[in-house]
Amino acid sequence: MAFQSLFTLVALAAAVVAVPAPQDAQVNCGGGRFVKNAACCAWFPVLDDIQENLFSGSLCAEEAHEALRLTFHDAVGFSIAAEREGQFGGGGADGSILAFSDIETSFAANFGLDFTTEAFIPFALAHKVSFGDFVQFAGAVGVSNCIGGPRLQFLAGRSNNSRPSPDNLVPEPTDSAEKIFERLQDIGFSPIEVVHLLTAHTVSAQYEVDTDVAGSPFDSTPSSFDNQFFVESLLKGTAFTGNGQGGEVTSPIPGEFRLQSDFAISRDSRTACEWQSLVTNHANMVSKFETVMAKLATVGQNPNNLIDCSDVIPVPPAAKVTTGSFPPGKSKADVQSACAATPFPNLATQPGPVTSVLPVTA
Ligand code: HEM
Ligand SMILES: *[C@@H]1O[C@H](CO)[C@@H](O)[C@H](O)[C@H]1NC(C)=O
């Protein structure tokens, strides 16, 4: 009898282990999905819809890249300096880029974003979520589709009321490092944090700087959130991929597009060492990006008034490589190191013939 009840107990314990219960204080949203705050369940239908119908089945391709870019172009529309002078400085991450897309996409730095805003607005309207929340949500979901991507914080609850951002707040590829640093400093980002933000260019391409080479990526692996952007941007440029105008400088690989602004910041004495430090250690790069993106997503917002719905953001596919490498045919001899304090690390060269980088398509 004693033996039998012990056996029952063990069997019961095993059953409890076999069917793991969700952690304490979790809300069941149905469909095997759990969140800490019940208000976050409402984001799962938005997630499913955009993964299927905006990101073509959870791809890290053009629309996901655009979603990430949009988080910046919405949030950077904010100026504390203007507010100090008694002018309206914009609302930051307030969704004004969608609410007033006709106005804001006419700004030079937002040229071409009208296709993005047109594609995104119907999803926000259909799910009755605020434009400000939707921009940051879509960016976080989009970049979670990239191999080795970050899992960005997502806070919900931004007001849907906004006013059009003033013009000339979004940095342009023709801007000097100094101008970009000053612009971002105005909203609380140091030059080092600008480098962390620019990690986004590891999953990026250009369509509008030179439309003849639309889709030309900024590194050789635009659907992987890897260290390649930092490595390849430090290689000597050899040829233009486009017409060499509008903020393009020479790149080291045929088909790869290099922005003058990235070139300048990667070699600026204030940021060159931080840039170089991101050519290795994928986990470090991702964690710095997650930190700085949490700040970007709440520019002009009070985070204490928002609800943490980060548990709705998918866990990204794991990184396949955790350090940068030289593209075929390249070596340390091709590096233009601008960091005086630290030697450039030793990296492997990828085997195989020199190939050109293909454009990113939708
Ligand atoms: C700080 C100065 C920055 C400048 C001057 C800059 C400039 C640019 C330019 C010119 C493009 C190409 C757009 C096109 O022609 O289609 C681009 C693409 C992109 N940028 Fe930036 N950017 C900056 C910072 C950022 C930041 C902070 C983020 C996000 C956190 C970001 C995310 C992206 C993404 C994801 C793309 C790729 C879009 C696509 O492939 O469709 N950028 N950027
Ligand atoms: C947000 O504001 C826009 C107008 O800018 C409106 O069309 C939309 O329905 C609003 N969304 C919500 C959730 O209130």
Q: Let me know the average pLDDT.
A: 94
Portion of residues within helices:
25-40%
Bound molecules: protoporphyrin IX containing FE, 2-acetamido-2-deoxy-beta-D-glucopyranose
Number of domains: 2
Task: Assign the structural class, choosing from mainly alpha, mainly beta, alpha/beta, alpha+beta, or little secondary structure.
Answer: mainly alpha
Strand order of the largest sheet: 1-2
Kindly provide the name of the CATH class of the largest domain.
Mainly Alpha
Looking at the structure, what is the overall shape?
globular
Output the radius of gyration. 22 Å
Q: Can you tell me the residue ranges where pLDDT is under 50 for at least 5 consecutive residues?
A: 1-18
Tally of separate helices: 14
Q: What kind of assembly state do the chains in view correspond to?
A: single chain
Number of strands: 8
Q: CATH architecture of the largest domain, please?
A: Orthogonal Bundle
Protein name: Peroxidase
GO molecular function: heme binding; metal ion binding; peroxidase activity
InterPro entries: Ccp1-like (IPR044831), Haem_peroxidase (IPR002016), Haem_peroxidase_sf (IPR010255), Ligninase (IPR001621), Ligninase_C (IPR024589), Peroxidases_AS (IPR019794)
Organism: Irpex lacteus (Milk-white toothed polypore)
What this model shows, in words?
The protein is mostly helical and 362 residues long. It folds into two domains: 39-168 and 294-312, Peroxidase, domain 1 (Orthogonal Bundle); 177-282 and 321-334, Peroxidase, domain 2 (Orthogonal Bundle), CATH 1.10.420.10. Helices cover 37% and strands 5% of the residues. The chain contains 14 helices and eight strands. The chain has helices at 2-18, 43-53, 62-75, 80-84, 96-99, 101-104, 113-126, 131-144, 177-185, 191-197, 228-232, 260-267, 272-277, 282-296, and strands at 27-30, 33-35, 155-156, 205-206, 216-217, 248-249, 258-259, 307-308. Strands 1-2 form a two-stranded antiparallel sheet. The chain has a two-stranded antiparallel sheet with strand order 3-8. A hairpin with an 8-residue loop joins strand 6 and strand 7 (258-259). Helix 3 (62-75) crosses helix 8. It is globular and about 55 Å long. Residues 1-18 have low confidence and may be disordered. It binds protoporphyrin IX containing FE (HEM) and 2-acetamido-2-deoxy-beta-D-glucopyranose (NAG). Residues 62, 65-66, 68-69, 72, 112, 171-173, 175, 180, 194, 197-198, 200-201, 203-209, 259, 261 line the site of protoporphyrin IX containing FE (HEM).
